[in-house]
UniProtKB/TrEMBL annotation:
The keyword Mitochondrion is annotated on this UniProt entry: no
Protein name: Aldehyde dehydrogenase family protein
Record-annotated Aldehyde dehydrogenase domain positions: 17-481
Annotated active site: 254
GO molecular function terms noted in the UniProt entry: oxidoreductase activity, acting on the aldehyde or oxo group of donors, NAD or NADP as acceptor
Family of this protein: Belongs to the aldehyde dehydrogenase family.
SUPFAM superfamilies: ALDH-like
Keywords per UniProt: Oxidoreductase
Keyword Oxidoreductase found: yes
Organism: Paenibacillus piri
Amino acid sequence: MAFQAGETVFNYINGEWTPSVTGQTDPSLNPSDKSQIVGYIQRSSKEDLNRAIDAAQQAQLAWRKLSGAARGDLLYKAANALERRLDEIAETMTREMGKTFPEAKGETARGVAILRYYAGEGMRKVGDVIPSTDSEALMFTTRVPLGVVGVITPWNFPVAIPIWKIAPALVYGNTVLLKPASETAVTAAKVVECFHEAGLPAGVINMVTGKGSEIGQGIIDHKGINGITFTGSNETGKRIGMGALARGAKYQLEMGGKNPVIVAADADLDLAVEATISGGLRSTGQKCTATSRVIVQSAVYKPFKQKLLERVKQLKVGDGMDPSTWMGPCASESQQQTVLSYVEKGISEGATLLYGGKVPDGAGDGYFVEPAVFDNVKPDMAIAKEEIFGPVLALIKVETLEEAVRTANDTEFGLSASIFTRNIGSMLSFINDMEAGLVRVNAESAGVELQAPFGGMKQSSSHSREQGQAAIEFFTSIKTVFVKQ
Ligand SMILES: NC(=O)C1=CN([C@@H]2O[C@H](COP(=O)(O)OP(=O)(O)OC[C@H]3O[C@@H](n4cnc5c(N)ncnc54)[C@H](OP(=O)(O)O)[C@@H]3O)[C@@H](O)[C@H]2O)C=CC1
Ligand SMILES: O=C(O)CCC(=O)C(=O)O
């Protein structure tokens, strides 16, 4: 089945599209025009969740007994299905969460590439032979799946994030229960349809939609879930970590960021401006890797600020399906209100709002907000400390590069960071001293490559890494084998 705009999306349990036992649904709205309903999603209960987890448990043994190559083949088929439906799924994403259509297409293509990458992983080695002290014994490691993995995902990357968790979970032999963000559950259902079209056996992947406090909490508490992988807010992440720890389940958390870009005195300013805009304002600043603190050496502060302002003023805000739009709306009313409240907070704490930060004229029924640029920001202000998750850039002036790195590290988060400089020594100090899981030189803070490990330091993650070959560490357990005749 292919869902049409405005249709009701069911849960996917044991290979079948199934309405919730509650009989209740919630609308998913278009943030560019909340009068448009993208679809209705199931407001599920614990009973639906229990059925889905039962199905995933039943499917587990047969799935783990397939060869990695056979599981990989099914992922290749899911990739082909997603590729065939790329435009349709990207359009649903734009309508459901607001990012521009080109960005949504890019994300969907990334989903295809992730599926193909992990399909290939089904053929790669999973262990090592380790010399035993007993010369007559063979000792080696192998890996086994966790069992049933609960996948709890956010709304900001509704295709890429579910896929970068589901694909490795499946190829390493786990079965999956997906609980997508309610904001983007219609898009998620279309991704699940691609797995269905690929012919995955019933129960191997299941999806239940509903409130985080009901279905998400149910996943935390359910003994049948052996591992939970999560991306989202720090508050929810901590709840998941504590709940999983309490009952001995494995967990992996990717959470917030307050990512800096450092613009050194010798930087290529045009490059730095373009990267600050792209890293900070693409997807309306709603990326955990988005640039939000712009730390600039005083020698180039004024020219950098001028160039940045000139470019930001040119950015057109509007419906992501309009080809002339550069930046779409916030994904929801609550995101829009959060951004507006941080703009107020920045002003009241004494920073200077140079541009934007208001609801633009003619916003109609959309959750639009102009990109905002703040000057005279001090490191202890809320806009320099807390994750805003919106299009707000805070300019911070520093004298030296040492002060820049110290300021960049003065945060509870440690996800990504970038520097613009031509000096190899400055690059190396930054690479060594920056407390972040992703450090980028002469490139924007956002932009994750699917074949490389991704994750944060400090409060940004559970110190695990996802994507690339790092994914095997979470989705499997190592078994050390000792064999003697
Ligand atoms: N690191 C990142 O990439 C992201 C960070 N965020 C940050 O979080 C803020 C709030 O966004 P929000 O969408 O509320 O983030 P949440 O962390 O609440 O949502 C992420 C996922 O967790 C689910 N969830 C919510 N409550 C619970 C719970 N008690 N137990 C288990 N799962 C739960 C959500 O379900 P449901 O959608 O049904 O509530 C969703 O699927 C943003 O402003 C931003 O700062 C948000 C998204 C992504
Ligand atoms: O920057 C990216 O491509 C990924 C960002 C991300 O993982 C997130 O926002 O959750």
